[in-house]
Amino acid sequence: MKTAIPVENGDTLTAVRGFLQKLLETGTVEALFVPLEVDGGAILPALVTDPERTRLANPLAPVMPINSARAVSALTGKQAPARIGAVLRPCEIRALVELVKLQQATLEGVTLIGIDCPGTFELPDYVVKKRSGGASLAEYLAGAKEGSEPGLDGLQARPACRMCLNPVPEHSAIHLELIGVDTAQGIPVTMTDEIATKLGMTETRLPGAEGRQAAVDRLVAARTQTREKELAAIQAQMHANGGLASLFATCIRCHNCMTACPICYCKTCLFKSASFDHQPEHYLNAARRKGAVRMLSDAILFQVTRMNHMSASCVNCGMCTSACPSDIPVGTIFSAIGSQVQAAFEYVPGRSLEEPLPLVTFRESEWTEVGEAK
Amino acid sequence: MTDTNSFEPRIVAFLCNWCTYTGADLAGTSRLQYPPNVRIIRTMCSSAVDPVYVLKPLMDGADGVLIGGCHPGDCHYQTGNYKTRRRFVALQEILKSTGIDERRIWLRWISASEGQIFANTMTEMVGAIKELGPNPARENWTI
């Protein structure tokens, strides 16, 4: 059902908070996963059961401290302990769909509340601006209305967001629109009839709804261009002489990219195990063989292995780039690789719960030439 | 630099216990001649070879990696080799897009009775890798 959250005095955030409070008060959900504001300007993802606490909720803040699909995985496991509502961005929902298929989360008993995402900024940048009284939400939402690339007092959105082709969430039971709509007047919401009845919301059409699709298209068109340009640049770098090694030359193998990645779920990563802890002689032999050996061994092996393990499910959330202390464009590299792998298997991560993961399924009739003598 | 004429490729082969390893064994017991450039590692199934074990030797300077498994439909574990095939396709894509020469990795279905085919495959692979020349990673210490 198409309905709308009324907004008073142009205060969109208060209206959203009121809506979230109602979800808890009506028992539509028993607990709500949503980012809360804390003193000092930061935003923390939290699980809320007390409706009063929703007055701190701020799912509109243009930051993404973590890809919350991981949090939903922790909150649901094999079976959600209660009716949980999860307020998520589109890339978080797509990552969650992948985690469900990887059997790391369930959507049973989970109400997905998706909000349009015009783009996010690096968390530390946002906090600094917020503390100095900047980072105006009204400005951010006004930009979203136009379908233009958001800015944060002169700073650009995270690189992954500037290349994001999916600003509109899918799979959500409740969907709040921000792009191409005047959210100072009201927030258009699409929800299931069942939830609408519980909340006592009725069919509502806000004026000016016809501009929405054009704004979404404008944003996606601009980002398609950025994405193509960035991916081509990364491909060129990878194919240059010593490309991969030079791209990852500053990698300190801290595993931050893996830790921040919503898809990398293994409890014990091979690279955190002793598998590649070699005997001292191994390094000496390698040095003798090559003349010298990088003493942060297996850094490239780690990266390329991760490409093999998760790039089919990469949802381009760019958390890896944000987590990298060495400013390596990890997310762009993985987007470039991921798009090749996904194209080969005609797989779109996060698209469908039914579509099997490409590496756990097969068809007898495919790639029949592979493995045969030429 | 290694002289191309005297270049002897080092090839690491992961062979499935049920088919290709037995095929290699047959090649040996039948006294078939094939180039001695291969170091064989026996695995229970070709699908047990995680890409990391293909990448590790490549980055350490091996000139080629062969994965050997049962013919499609003949997998001892029913469908392992079909999954190997998909994983191999993904690995090829990733090597292609990262600028690593994907022609250094081979996948071949060789059954337990195909000793001659194993020997032929090794001859063919050593020839092909000789043409590619030594793996640049042999000398690249930054990898």
Write the layout of secondary structure elements.
The complex is a heterodimer of chains A (374) and B (143).
Chain A: E1 2-6, H1 12-25, E2 31-37, E3 43-48, H2 69-76, E4 84-88, H3 90-101, E5 110-115, H4 123-131, H5 137-146, E6 151-152, E7 155-156, H6 159-162, E8 174-176, E9 186-191, H7 193-199, H8 212-239, H9 243-247, H10 256-260, H11 280-290, H12 299-310, H13 319-323, H14 330-344
Parallel strand pairs in A: 2-4, 4-5, 5-8
Antiparallel strand pairs in A: 1-9, 2-3, 6-7, 8-9
Helix pairs in contact in A: 2-3, 8-14
Chain B: E1 11-16, H1 20-29, E2 38-43, H2 51-60, E3 64-69, H3 80-98, E4 105-109, H4 115-132
Parallel strand pairs in B: 1-2, 1-3, 3-4
Helix pairs in contact in B: 1-4
Supply Rg of chain B: 15 Å
What's the pLDDT, averaged over the residues of chain A?
95
The string of secondary-structure elements of chain B, in order, is: EHEHEHEH
pLDDT under 50 segments of chain B (min length 5)? none
CATH C-level label of chain B: Alpha Beta
Give me the number of helical elements of chain B.
4
Structure in words:
Chain A folds into two domains: 222 residues, no CATH class; 118 residues, no CATH class. The longest helix of chain A is centred in the middle third of the chain and has 28 residues. In chain A, helix 2 packs across helix 3 and helix 8 packs across helix 14. Chain A has 374 residues and is of the alpha/beta class. In chain A, the strands form two sheets. A seven-stranded mixed sheet of chain A has the order 1-9-8-5-4-2-3, with helices on both faces. A two-stranded antiparallel sheet of chain A has the order 6-7. Chain A is globular. Chain A is built from 14 helices and nine strands. In chain A, a hairpin with a 2-residue loop joins strand 6 and strand 7. The model of chain B has no long low-confidence stretch (mean pLDDT 94). A four-stranded parallel sheet of chain B has the order 2-1-3-4, with helices on both faces. Chain B has one domain: 3-Layer(aba) Sandwich (Rossmann fold), CATH 3.40.50. In chain B, strand 1, helix 1 and strand 2 form a beta-alpha-beta unit. Chain B contains four helices and four strands; from the N terminus they run βαβαβαβα. With 143 residues, chain B is an alpha/beta fold. Chain B starts with 10 loop residues before the first strand and ends in an 11-residue tail after the last helix. Chains A and B meet through helix 8, helix 9, helix 11, helix 12 and helix 14 of A and helix 2, helix 3, strand 4 and helix 4 of B.
